[in-house]
Fold:
Amino acid sequence: MNRVIYVSRGGNTKKIAGAVAKGAGVSAAPIEEFDTLQSSDILFVGASIYAGSIDGKLRKLLKGLQPSQVKSVAVFGTSAGNKSARQEIKSILEPKGITVLNEEFHCRGSFLFANRGRPNEEDMRQAEDFAKRVCNDGNE
Ligand SMILES: Cc1cc2nc3c(=O)[nH]c(=O)nc-3n(C[C@H](O)[C@H](O)[C@H](O)COP(=O)(O)O)c2cc1C
Structure:
C-alpha cells in the first residue's frame, strides 16, 4: 500500500499532503500517526524547510526507517524559496538502501509577507497530478 505522511508547522505542507493523498487514493497522516509496523510500497513524505533544514522529528523518523518497511520514497513539500527537502531526505535514506524517487513536488509556501496565498489551487492540482503520476509509474 502507498502511504502519505507529512510534517507541517503552519499548514502549508499539510494542504499539499491532502492533494497528494487524493491523487494517491489514500489519506494523509501527520508523522506522529505514522505506524512503523505497517510497510509501504511508495511512502510519500511531505516536508518543509525551516532554517535550511527539515523538521527534527521527521529527521529522527527517517533515520529509524528500515528498507524492509518501505520500497521507495517520494518527496513533496513547500518552502519560502526554491529549496526542497528531497536532497536532505535522500542523504539520510539512500545510504540505507531506501530509494528516493527523482520525481518530487515542491511549491512555494507563504512565509511572513512572502508568497501570499500559496499553496494555491493550481499548486494543489499539480500536487495531485504528481501523486497520480508517481503511483502509475510504480504500477508499471
Ligand atoms: C522558523 C521558520 C524558518 C524557515 N526557514 C526557511 C528557510 O530556511 N528556507 C525557506 O525557503 N523557507 C523557510 N521557511 C518558510 C517555510 O519553509 C514555508 O513557510 C513553508 O511553506 C512552511 O510550511 P508549513 O506551513 O507546512 O510548516 C521558514 C519558516 C519558518 C516558520
